[in-house]
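Good morning,

Attaching, inline, the backbone tokens for the sequence recovery test we're adding to the shared suite. The designed sequence is right after.
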């Protein structure tokens, strides 16, 4: 298959000339345990199910680290999960990180490789699709040994270490950003980052009221720190809440581990008459997230690829605050690539103060012309067919693979 360039509008619809010879198929997914890895996998699987002919049976499997997000979402989609032990390289310097790296390198990762070997050997998948991340390393290593056909997807503008390491063995590499670095150009296919299509369907006012208990009376600001929350974005939010709430309604996804402390702090910080305008969630379900995206006037977010492409898919103006400790500064590079397109505004943590943050946010919401331009640019940046295109590539490969 010659698939080494952006074919966003050229992919043929999947067809099988002889469906009777098409066997039961097993597709194995792998990736790190965060939402940034899990949600795109979910989007791809849903699209594969949607476009697969009814007389073809595909079984889906996932192998990776323990994750509450994957457990909950994948079981609903009838995706069989195999948990393995994994480890990662910590880039910060301390004695504890040295010990953790030692344990991961010499114990946890080898155990994960052994677990992966037995699982993949007996499962014998027809192909593997990896979202990268430390959680994908053991299964990718085994896929190489057992010669399982493998596709990669790279979310960020700078390839992660695991995808870079295994890129030479991949059949093709789907990428989210133009000019993605550290991957072989001849294997890259620009498709964007798969997003769940449900998120793009506007909910009714009654649905929004039901899911997040919000009726729009003032401009709505949606603040999120990724699937796990962000302690520093939470602190920044708390520092400006008294200033913002008289003018805005705020939806705040804070992360499960931070929620109890934030509930106590906001109960003290927010005057009684303004509490109805502050909507705190430890974690947003898919339906809640959909409502939050569509009711919002402005979104404040980290700059993971998943968040960026979801914001683009719902065509909302945004302020991105990249995580400065992200590997190879990929969040900073993601953010500037997106915002240089004109779809949002970047504020780096080293430059941010509560006063500056509140001022930038207020000025942006009040500038209707800039907000409208950001909406248009976000929509132009988005690639709504990403999951569909990846699915059609996968099924076209399976047709050729299984008919040979």
């Amino acid at each position: 298959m010659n698939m080494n360039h952006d074919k966003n509008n050229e992919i043929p619809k999947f067809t099988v000339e002889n469906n009777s010879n098409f066997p039961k198929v097993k597709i194995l997914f792998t990736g790190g345990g965060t939402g940034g890895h899990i949600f795109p996998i979910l989007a791809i699987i849903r699209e594969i199910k949607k476009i697969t002919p009814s007389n073809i049976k595909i079984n889906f499997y996932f192998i990776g680290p323990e994750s509450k997000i994957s457990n909950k979402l994948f079981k609903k989609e009838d995706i069989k999960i195999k948990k393995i032990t994994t480890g990662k390289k910590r880039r910060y310097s301390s004695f504890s990180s040295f010990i953790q790296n030692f344990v991961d390198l010499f114990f946890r990762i080898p155990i994960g490789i052994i677990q992966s070997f037995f699982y993949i050997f007996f499962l014998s998948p027809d192909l593997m699709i990896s979202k990268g991340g430390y959680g994908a390393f053991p299964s990718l290593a085994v896929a190489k040994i057992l010669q399982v056909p493998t596709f990669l997807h790279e979310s960020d503008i700078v390839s992660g270490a695991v995808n870079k390491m295994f890129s030479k063995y991949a059949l093709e590499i789907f990428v989210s950003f133009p000019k993605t670095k550290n991957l072989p150009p001849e294997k890259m296919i620009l498709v964007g980052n798969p997003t769940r299509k449900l998120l793009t369907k506007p909910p009714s006012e009654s649905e929004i009221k039901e899911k997040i208990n919000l009726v729009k009376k003032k401009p709505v600001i949606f603040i999120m720190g990724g699937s796990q929350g962000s302690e520093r974005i939470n602190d920044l939010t708390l520092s400006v809440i008294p200033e913002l709430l008289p003018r805005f309604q705020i939806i705040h996804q804070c992360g499960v581990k931070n929620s109890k402390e934030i509930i106590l702090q906001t109960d003290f910080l927010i005057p009684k008459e303004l509490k109805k305008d502050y909507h705190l969630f430890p974690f947003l379900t898919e339906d809640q997230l959909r409502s939050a995206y569509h009711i919002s006037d402005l979104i404040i977010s980290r700059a993971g690829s998943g968040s960026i492409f979801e914001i683009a898919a719902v065509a909302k103006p945004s302020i991105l605050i990249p995580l400065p400790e992200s590997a190879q500064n990929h969040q900073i590079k993601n953010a500037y690539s997106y915002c240089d397109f004109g779809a949002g505004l970047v504020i780096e943590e080293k430059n941010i103060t509560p006063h500056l943050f509140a001022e930038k946010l207020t000025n942006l919401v009040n500038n209707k012309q800039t907000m409208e331009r950001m909406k248009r640019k976000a929509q132009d940046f988005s690639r709504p067919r990403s999951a569909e295109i990846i699915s059609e590539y996968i099924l076209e490969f399976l047709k050729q693979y299984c008919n040979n």
